[in-house]
Write a sequence for this structure.
């Protein structure tokens, strides 16, 4: 079979604006689409909007617009959001598209010709929120489990789809294809629904009650039930029945949904496909819910998290990374802004950001940005290579099983491995003693970074491409595939290796006011420290300007940074502050010696000299401390050492 991949998201209702939940599903689809591109597959990625039915008419009325105007407006909100989140869907389907309507009619006709649609009077309990009939058994304490309202008894003549006919076939099919619905918990859930007799599905609504839908091809007094209409988007967008896209991509179709719409996708849809003579999809991938404040997001609770606002505040790639790293696919997650900040600072600013910045600085400094040859690798170098090559296979199988958080953890093991390799190899020492070993080590670091840049691309496309640009690679994004990575050392930079500004600046814990998410950190003031240390109310004795002028504050540049034997906190710095002097600073654990070299800092130069751990300290380097660590205060621009601070 040709190497193809087809991924879909649910088509979202246009009765609400896009929120974190919609963004998550669509980002997952984008990550998978990009991953399959890295495997060399030709991919097709579909998303869109679901625009028919009672709910939409009600929302349009509330907005004072006609259904047509309203659906155009909200659909556009979804359509224009996706590129801003770097989502590269190939097509955007709308259920009001003429092509979609034609396909729905075509399938209805086929199913009818197959003897699977009949007309009947039905009296039942109807939930207007869900737009469907409920059986007594499905209700919880007499109420719709989704809307917590009592469904209304209504009597109506309608068309029904003979879904019951396919029950045994579906049970067999799920047993024969253990990965048809995954993860397993949702497969089991579907099988347990199917333990009970399956009822036929009411697939029409009389026009006397609802106009806003697709007219049945065999009775113009009725429109099609929204789910029967909506599910067909997955094939109408491919041009079913005749389109070439359908032939190429349908056999490898994978849907992504959350658990709320498991039943229509796990039961109605395979039965509809079977009846229409279409093969079932390949996989239904079901994820859990993002909850906020331990519950569902809802407009009335005021806790709707808007994806664009988050991406604007924290950076798009950091936001995408967090969603995929924090949620175990299949399980629920609690959205928490504090966890987002912690991840950005630890995983992105510290681990990955530092690795990239120190590596590029060293290649630039020691080899003028030109990648050295690998020379003769030793055991420690081979170990880095082996770890990177093993990671590619592990990553590939984890991604295929939707283990996104595990795939990222595995990549971060390599990032940790490389940081450790640098610390152990101490290239800054080799630079003085062994240029050949230095070349081998820097070569391995380069290759490790190249591997990482490709593996993080599906999650953080922009940052990955920036790294690839800084590494001087000729290709970027999906142009470098997993198989290219397996050829270790084959791809050399075509431009000098450059160091650019930090990829992921640390986020300070003070949050912008009015952050979305209801009870966000900003509003509660969490994370701003209990002591009021950083607050405006900090109580301190006032000093006069005259006193302040007694301080000899200067810009200094760090020439050397060395550990002080036996000290857990202190680092000995040799600085140029207009004069050369040693200063002892408690920066260990917050900065590596290597990171400190060449940094400009602020120095309190006329502090009484002291001896710390046997080293004379003439001055104090200024730093700020918050609950994420110690941060040096540095001049905004390169400044002549010794310049005074006023
Ligand atoms: N229109 C139907 C789907 C038809 S598909 C043929 C629909 N639309 S929806 O707008 O309600 O979208 C539901 C989907 O949005 C979920 O299945 C999930 O993909 C996403 N999410 C909405 N809220 C969510 C969370 N709180 N958490 C995670 N995803 C959620 O149902």
């Amino acid at each position: 079979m040709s190497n193809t991949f087809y991924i879909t998201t649910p088509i979202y209702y246009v009765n609400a604006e896009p929120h974190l939940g919609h963004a998550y599903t669509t980002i997952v689809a984008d990550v998978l689409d990009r991953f399959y591109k890295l495997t060399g597959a030709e991919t097709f990625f579909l998303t869109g909007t679901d625009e028919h039915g009672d709910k939409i008419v009600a929302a349009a009325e509330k907005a004072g617009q006609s259904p047509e105007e309203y659906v155009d407006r909200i659909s556009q909100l979804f359509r224009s959001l996706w590129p801003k989140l770097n989502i590269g869907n190939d097509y955007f389907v709308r259920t009001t598209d003429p092509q979609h309507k034609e396909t729905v009619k075509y399938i209805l006709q086929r199913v009818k010709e197959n003897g699977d649609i009949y007309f009947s009077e039905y009296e039942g309990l109807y939930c207007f929120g869900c737009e469907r009939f409920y059986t007594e058994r499905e209700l919880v304490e007499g109420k719709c489990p989704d809307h917590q309202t009592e469904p209304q008894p209504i009597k109506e003549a309608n068309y029904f789809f003979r879904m019951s006919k396919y029950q045994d076939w579906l049970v067999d099919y799920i047993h024969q294809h253990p990965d048809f619905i995954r993860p397993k918990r949702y497969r089991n859930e579907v099988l347990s629904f199917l333990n009970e007799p399956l009822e036929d599905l009411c697939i029409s609504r009389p026009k006397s009650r609802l106009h806003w839908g697709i007219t049945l091809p065999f009775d113009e007094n009725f429109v099609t039930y929204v789910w029967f209409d909506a599910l067909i988007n997955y094939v109408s967008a491919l041009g079913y029945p005749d389109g070439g896209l359908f032939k190429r991509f349908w056999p490898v179709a994978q849907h992504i949904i959350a658990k709320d719409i498991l039943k229509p996708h796990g039961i109605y849809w395979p039965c509809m496909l079977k009846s229409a003579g279409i093969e079932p999809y390949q996989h239904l991938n079901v994820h859990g819910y993002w909850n906020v404040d331990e519950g569902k997001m809802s407009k009335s609770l005021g806790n709707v998290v808007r994806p664009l606002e988050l991406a604007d505040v924290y950076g798009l790639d950091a936001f995408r990374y967090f969603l995929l790293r924090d949620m175990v696919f299949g399980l629920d997650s609690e959205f928490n802004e504090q966890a987002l900040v912690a991840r950005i600072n630890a995983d992105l600013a510290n681990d990955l950001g530092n690795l990239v910045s120190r590596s590029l600085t060293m290649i630039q400094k020691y080899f003028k940005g030109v990648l050295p040859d690998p020379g003769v690798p030793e055991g420690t170098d081979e170990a880095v290579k082996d770890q990177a090559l093993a990671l590619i296979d592990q990553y590939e199988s984890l991604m295929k099983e939707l283990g996104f958080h595990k795939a990222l953890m595995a990549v971060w093991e390599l990032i940790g491995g490389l940081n450790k390799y640098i610390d152990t190899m101490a290239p800054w020492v080799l630079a003085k003693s062994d240029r050949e070993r230095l070349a081998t080590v820097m070569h391995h670091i380069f290759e490790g970074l190249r591997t990482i840049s490709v593996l993080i691309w599906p999650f953080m496309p922009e940052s990955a491409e920036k790294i690839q640009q800084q590494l001087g690679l000729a290709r970027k994004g999906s142009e470098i595939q997993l198989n290219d990575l397996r050829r270790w050392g084959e791809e050399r930079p075509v431009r000098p290796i450059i160091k650019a500004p930090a990829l992921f600046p640390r986020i300070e814990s003070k949050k912008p006011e009015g952050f979305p998410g209801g009870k966000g950190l900003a509003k509660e003031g969490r994370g701003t420290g209990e002591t009021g240390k950083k607050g405006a109310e900090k109580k301190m004795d006032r000093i006069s300007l005259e006193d302040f002028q007694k301080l000899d504050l200067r810009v200094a540049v760090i020439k050397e940074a060395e550990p002080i034997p036996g000290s857990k906190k202190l680092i000995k710095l040799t600085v140029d502050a207009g004069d050369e002097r040693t200063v002892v600073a408690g920066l260990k654990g917050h900065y590596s010696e290597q990171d400190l070299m060449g940094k400009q800092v602020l120095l309190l130069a006329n502090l009484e000299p002291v001896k710390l751990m046997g080293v004379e300290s003439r001055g104090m380097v200024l730093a700020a401390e918050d609950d994420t660590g110690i941060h040096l205060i540095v001049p905004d621009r390169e400044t002549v050492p010794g310049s005074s601070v006023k």
